[in-house]
Amino acid sequence: MGQTSFESLRKQLDDLNLQLLHLINRRAEIVREIGEIKKKHGMQKFDPIRERDMLTNLIKSNKGPFSDRTISHLFKQIFQASLELQQDEEKKELLVSRKRHPSDTIVQIGDVPIGGGEKSIIAGPCSVESEEQVREVAKFLKQQGLKLLRGGAFKPRTSPYDFQGLGEEGLAILRRVADEYGLKVVSEIVNPSDMELAERYVDVVQIGARNMQNFELLKAVGSISLPVLLKRGMSATLEEFLYAAEYIVSRGNNQVILCERGIRTYEKWTRNTLDISAVPILKSESHLPVFVDISHATGRPDILLPMAKAAFAAGADGIMIEVHPDPKVALSDAQQQINIPQFEEFLKQLDPRFA
Ligand code: PEP
Ligand code: MN
Question: Which of 5, 114, 179, 337 could form a disulfide with 324 if both were Cys (CB 3.0 to 4.6 A apart)?
Answer without folding.
Answer: 337
